[in-house]
Design brief:
Order of helices and strands: EEEEEEEEEHEEEEEE
CATH topology of the largest domain: Thrombin, subunit H
CATH class of the largest domain: Mainly Beta
Helix content: under 10%
Number of helices: 1
C-alpha cells in the first residue's frame, strides 16, 4: 500500500510501551514506512510525547509520537544514522519473514480429482507435466517443475488459465472461463 510517504511494509509485532505520563500500555506495530513506525493501541496518545517501547524481536525503541488519530499513532525513531539504518533493515527482514500479503478469498469449493496428472502447455508452446493438487470451478493448484511469471497464460489440459500465485514447487492458476460448479467433481478430466 502506498501513500504520500512512500510504500508501507506491514509488520505485526507486540510491544509494551510507556511515556512520562502513561506507564505500561500495550500496542502492536502495523507497518513501517519513511514516515515512521505505525502502531495501534487502546491507549489514546498525544503527538509530541517521547515514547519508549519494548518490541518483540526488535528490543527497546526510543521514539517521538508524530501523529495520533484514534487508536493509531505514528512514531519517528530516535538515534543516529547507522543505528537507524540497522533498525530499518531489521524491521524489513522481519516484515518479509512475516509475509503478510493478503490471500484472496476462495468462494468455490475445491476438490481433489482422481486424474491428477495433466499436461500444461506454456505460452511458448512447450508442454510439461503437472500434478493437480486441487481444483475448483475458478482455478487449479498445480505442482510443476517450472517457475512461471505471475499473469502468464497457460493451458491446463484443455482449459486456459492465468498464473495468479506461487508456492513451493507449484502455482495457482485462475481459469479464463470458469467451470459450472456442477461440472467440478472427482471424476472430471481437464
Amino acid at each position: 500500500m502506498k501513500d504520500m510517504h512512500g510504500p508501507r511494509h506491514r509488520i505485526i509485532l507486540p510491544a509494551l510501551c510507556w511515556t512520562a505520563r502513561r506507564r505500561d500500555f500495550y500496542a502492536i506495530t502495523t507497518d513501517i514506512s519513511a514516515e515512521g513506525v505505525r502502531f495501534r493501541s487502546s491507549s489514546l496518545l498525544i503527538p509530541g510525547e517521547d515514547l519508549t517501547c519494548s518490541i518483540r524481536h526488535i528490543g527497546l525503541l526510543h521514539a517521538r509520537i508524530d501523529r495520533a488519530v484514534g487508536q493509531e499513532f505514528v512514531v519517528s525513531v530516535r538515534g543516529d544514522g547507522p543505528a537507524l539504518a540497522s533498525l530499518a533493515r531489521h524491521f524489513m527482514a522481519l516484515s518479509r519473514a512475516q509475509d503478510l500479503s493478503v490471500e484472496p478469498i476462495r468462494v468455490d469449493r475445491r476438490i481433489v480429482p482422481k486424474q491428477k496428472v495433466v499436461t500444461v502447455t506454456l505460452e511458448d508452446g512447450h508442454a510439461v507435466s503437472g500434478h493437480v493438487l486441487n481444483i475448483s470451478a475458478s482455478g487449479v493448484a498445480l505442482l510443476i517443475d517450472r517457475t512461471l511469471e505471475l499473469g502468464a497464460t497457460i493451458q491446463v489440459g484443455r482449459k486456459l488459465a492465468r498464473v495468479v500465485r506461487h508456492f513451493t514447487h507449484g502455482l495457482g492458476a485462475a481459469f479464463v472461463e470458469s467451470f459450472e460448479p456442477g461440472d467440478v467433481h472427482d471424476a472430471m478430466t481437464l
